[in-house]
Amino acid sequence: MDENRAANPPAETAAHGAPRICTINNDPFSIAAGLTATPGCGQNGPAYLCDTYSPVPVTDTLSYGFAIMRDKKSCCKCFELTWRSGTPAAGKKMQVQVINIGGDTTTNGASDIIIYTPGGGVGPVYDGCRQQYGKSWRQAKKKQRGS
């Protein structure tokens, strides 16, 4: 992973703002309401990540998206990630902007970058996709993963 150097000052001195939060139907909350809305993932609240945070392919070898990290100093910074293994991802790159901090985002003491996926991914604890997009989405992902 290589830090992508930008012309802007470091995040800890210049960054501010909040990511947009949506309802289960992808209608945006106001920024103020989104800051206090209870998450739909695991807490049965009305707030979900808007689908505008979906990773976006730019070329066959590059995409961009958004991420979460544990380190506050990383918030609002951009990083370029390179997949080292896995077909067909190996060698491809993704540029992400960290827009949130928190959670257990460490592996063996190192800070991980978690790529935002609207709906919360396919994990057993924070399974927002099933709630937001329905049971058929979950079944399709299980089949894709072979589980």
TrEMBL record:
Protein keywords: Carbohydrate metabolism, Cellulose degradation, Glycosidase, Hydrolase, Polysaccharide degradation
Residue ranges of every copy of the Glycosyl hydrolases family 45 active site domain listed in the record: 19-136
Known catalytic reactions: Endohydrolysis of (1->4)-beta-D-glucosidic linkages in cellulose, lichenin and cereal beta-D-glucans
One GO molecular-function entry: cellulase activity
Enzyme class: hydrolase
Recorded superkingdom: Eukaryota
Pfam families assigned to the protein according to its UniProt record, in alphabetical order: Glyco_hydro_45
GO terms, biological process: cellulose catabolic process
Its EC number(s): 3.2.1.4
Annotated family: Belongs to the glycosyl hydrolase 45 (cellulase K) family.
Protein name (Swiss-Prot/TrEMBL): cellulase
Organism: Echria macrotheca
Taxonomic lineage of the native organism: Eukaryota, Fungi, Dikarya, Ascomycota, Pezizomycotina
